[in-house]
Task: structure prediction
Amino acid sequence: MTTANATAAVDRPSTRIAEVWDRLASVTDPELDESVTGLGFVTHVEVDAAGAVQIGFRLPTYWCAANFAFLMADDMRVAVAGLPWVTNVAIELADHMYAGEINRGVAAGRSFQDSFGAQASGELDGIRRTFMVKAFQRRQEALLTSLLEHGHEPARLVRMSVAELAGLPGDCASRRLVERYLERRTVVASGANAAAQANETAFVDARGALLDADGLGAYLRALRRVGVNAQFNSALCRGLLAARYGDAAAPQAGIEPVHFVSAGDWKETVEATRSGNASA
Result:
């Protein structure tokens, strides 16, 4: 073995483990719309020489909803199995009342209904869509609020296409808001593929209807309620995880205050920005 090959062989395990963590970071808690790694739910990752991956997984309580736990475990399996060198993925949910059913079902590639049999009342497609829509609404509110604060005109925003939104210039934080929104906008898209969706209106409601510029303030206030519920549940989950496994087990996230602004506040922001630009 050459020196270069020997170095590559030594580096490969740590590189592969990093690739697995990167894939896991893309998996979210369906209710909170936050990464399972950011929430502290993943305890460890191991990779052997044959490409088999073992992932440790835990939740804030012994009785966390089995359907949510199954969704996260199966999403982790699918995300990691997409790496080209992976030969097998084992998810090991620990300290949960349904760990056995979930671990066996996910390992066998079975559905939720097949994994739980008579204990389940159906598959999880409806639940997944419900929380995908909530995540879409939460991300849309964050993005639209940011764009309005940066002086974008409401009348222009409600007519903007997906392609125009994707091409907006901005800093890293703004780009991340756009990317996160477009990830979830697919839940209301009517086009069959990305090319067809590029010409669709970027901002629509959960039913796919166009937004009204004059009613945008009230619309955003309604969406903020979705964010408040998610923030509360996120703080509760982090607190329960810390109480169960210690403070170090639950990474703390900064909680942004939710501002319930009056209907005209965003218009005043736009006017102030416009005036500032005119006098500059």
The beta strands are 28-29, 34-35, 42-47, 52-57, 88-93. The CA atoms of residues 12 and 140 lie 39 Å apart.
